[in-house]
Amino acid sequence: xxxxxxxxxxxxxxxxxxxxVITGPRQSGKTTLCKNHFQNYSYFNLEDSQIREQxxxxxxxxxxxxxxxxxxxxxxxxxxxxxxxxQVVVDExxxxxxxxxxxxxxxx
Length: 108
Description:
With 108 residues, the chain is of the alpha/beta class. It has one domain: 3-Layer(aba) Sandwich (Rossmann fold). It is built from five helices and four strands, in the order αβαβααβαβ. The protein has helices spanning 5-13, 30-37, 49-57, 59-66, 82-92, and strands spanning 19-24, 42-45, 71-74, 98-103. Strands 1-4-3-2 form a four-stranded parallel beta sheet, covered by helices on one side. Strand 3 (71-74), helix 5 and strand 4 form a beta-alpha-beta unit. Helix 3 (49-57) crosses helix 4 and helix 4 (59-66) packs across helix 5 (82-92).
């Protein structure tokens, strides 16, 4: 794994936030960074329609089940309805940690 200065910044700010978002273009290393930096967190790729369907059954319960010690939700832009549920869970349980990745695209 290539060392990234961003890792130091993540360590510095993570104690202050329940939700941490990493954005960038596709194939820029967001997922690799998260999987390596948050190795003990549960990981879910929201590009997978089966994962989205599983979450849709009981979104809040799903988030609470995997939020300790933390959860990585990769490609979260694929499931925008989930943001409201994350907010509710974090408002009630600020010790939970959510790491979200989102690809940014440019449209001409």
